[in-house]
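In response to a reviewer's request, we include the raw inputs and outputs for one of the modeled complexes. The three entities were modeled together in a single run.
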Amino acid sequence: MGFLEIRNLCKSFDTVSVINDFSFELVEQTLCCLVGPNGAGKTTTMDLITGRQKPTSGRILFCDDDITGLDEHEIARRGIGRKFQVPAVFRDLKVRQNLEVAYSRSTNPLKNFFRFREPFFAEKLEEILALTGLGNRLNVEAGILSHGETQWLEIGMVLMQNPRLLLLDEPVAGMTESEIEKTAEIFNRLKQTNTLVVVEHDMAFVRQIADMVTVMHMGSLLAHGSIGDIEANERVREVYLGETEDA
Amino acid sequence: MNLYHKVSAQWLAYLVFYAVLAMVPLVVSDNFLLNQLSTYGVFAMLALSVSLCWGFGGILNLGQGIPFGLGAYGMAMTMQMQSQDESNPMPPFMLNNSLDHLPLFWVPFGNTTVGIVLALVVPTLFCAIFGGLMFRARVSGPFFAIMTLAMLSAWYTLILDIQPYTNGVNGITPPAALKLGELVVDPYSPGAYWLVLGLLIAATVVAKLMTLSRFGLVVQSIRNDAERVRFLGYNVAGYETAIYTVSGLFAAVAGCCWVILTQYVSPAQFDTTFSLSIVIWAGIGGRMSLMGAILGAFLIQGAQSYLGDAFLNTWLLILGGFFILVVRFLPKGLIGLVESALGRISIGSKKGGNGVSAPRLYPQPGE
Amino acid sequence: MAVGSFFTSFDLSAFINALILGISIASIWLIAALGLTIIYGAVGVINMAHGEFIMLGAYSSYMLQSFLGLPFLLCVPASFLIVVAVGLILERGLIRYLYKRPLDTLLATFGVSLVLMQGVRLIFGSDPKYLAVPPIFSSNIQFAFVNISVFRVVVLLVTIAVVVALWALFYRTRFGVQVRAVMQDKEMAASFGVNADRVYMLTFALGAGLAGLAGSLFGVLNIVLPTMGAAYVVQAFLVVVVGGGTLAGSVAAGGATGELQSIFAYFTNDTFARFVLFVMIVVFLRIRPQGLFAPSAKRR
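The model returned the following structure tokens for the whole complex.
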């Protein structure tokens, strides 16, 4: 009985097969890094889990419920949060408003017509600000944040949802060394309470945060294990580490 | 902080603006002018509805004439039926079109209350169904705009076509003013003016509250990035349908008021030019701002009737050119100028530590 | 609304006539939509002034004919060139600044349509103008029980010729390769030395010119009025939306909607048929929002 279980997932576009019989199981309260060369199908896997794309075949179970083929918002409501590869925040809105929208306890449009305050929002906001350090940026428009801050804002937004599972697509892309340090710190704190899947290229970062590493190649599972196991694995060295170590 | 963005200043601006408007009948004794001013109120309500949908929701709606026209026809049918009685159960144009009994869908309009309710419910329901279909299919942006335009054109042809039931191109001209029980709503009276103004104020307050609520926040987020909102657990299609439907309801109310004021409705209300001019009012005034859109409607329609029919063609030419310039250089519309002007003043006053004096000098800022 | 007429009097020859009329309607809608299709497909602009480009084409032909005495057959290509020039000016002067704001291009081109319509009205007045054609075009031809005007056949042939020419342009020339490269990925195409700016400019001008060409034909089918564009533009948009913005899609969508219109009109009447068609398109889009032949979905 797994927390997130992917069974024989397949996805093809026209005749091109992107995900090929991929199976995977995730234990609660771990941080699993999903690695693999470009085109291995990491982002597509995330799309399939979160409902952005529908699988051609196979099943996805979350907390023993079948979530295959549900709409994005239904999956999100079950407690799966997602951060995009290209940071997606609401650029016209203030940072505070971004976080307010993300605090999505009540989602019914009609009930939200004349609803102005969310209970317990302030407490949650405090908590997220402490984690991301955006406290002094609350009243600026999200469009003017620096790249690193935008990444943290989106991570903060995902956390606002109180997700049981966080999917993070390249969260440190474009960050400076010190920003990466801080992000690693955030993740190491988060995995005490949450379950995380992080797609990442930066192996140094992976070493800092990963409990488990899953390697994908050509849309299939290549290897799964601790960082030590993976680095010792011959096949992984061949297809992945050997090629992109310095990339 | 820019005074323009301050919510309390915005409410104050509304208060001043509407207080001034409410006093107009005390000054203006020309009833025809009063009636004309009331119709501007109707146009303002339309501009408000488009601003809500387009400015805040990012849903460009080129077919706002549909709910407006349906509401107007509903009200016109109700008023027409008030002039019919047992001995004379059918409107004259039906007899001219050789119908031998009242069409079934006209029957409920014989009861004034039911008629008015239908005049509001039918257009709202139409928006909910059409919007629901489109937004669930994730038709958005320019494509949605085109579909509203096509739908508008479909209604236009339909109403033109079923002449025996709608009097075709001639439209419906109820012979008498609307009677609510014992009360007669004389379109040329201050009472009618205040009725329209009251409804406009109510619509403004509701719209403003909606934009400030969580609903408004989510809708504005959808305008920024609909995809992101979905992954936060919101049903985007539901929100889009809701804002489109509310905007349609406002337009339906405007349609009812319009017929009360003019005692006339025709397929021209479904004409593309009319729906597009609503967008022009909101665009020039300032689509992102409810007040901007309202002022845009007043300004443009006011100028248009001031110049009169003789200059209509030249005026429309200038209006078109001006609209191009606004789209190109002032996406926030004319109210955007007020925003940046106030922005400068606020910075200045912050230095002087005197932020309070600004609202008295500039009572115009509105959201 | 004589829906019941199907059961009472189904007339085969009239029905076949309706089908043939449908082909004619389809060709009219398609030629009206071709310019819009390539402008939307290649440049991504919804050109609300398309109807007024059609109108300008008709007025260009009218002017050339009545002031210069140009024969109609020369007016058609000349109108094409005149409207190409108008499109070029518009693209350079306005549209190119708005490529990043799709809703605003729609609005700006709507402003342009208002200016063009009112401008023409101020110059030529609101009374209808007529285009004269060689007498052979104004006759009817009769095969067995099928009766159709020669000019409608001409429109059909021109439409076919233009579709073939466009296909050849996009799939058989260097320019076509460049256009398709820019459609796929503007940055990538630019890095391979394709001048995207120039491609946009030329495609927009070409699309405008096609509207002018259509206009000079419509001026014969109908009277020439400042407001004539509005009669075609909604249909043209629907053809583009249903077709998904590709050339093949527009051909299929134009054919399907034209035929359906004619068939519905046979059972009811013209205007009611239009209403039914619109409703069908709305339902169709619910099922297939990307249109008939949409280019494969882009991935983020």
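As requested, we also summarize the result in words. Confidence is low (pLDDT under 50) at residues 1-7, 296-300 of chain C. The first strand of chain C starts at residue 140 and ends at 143.
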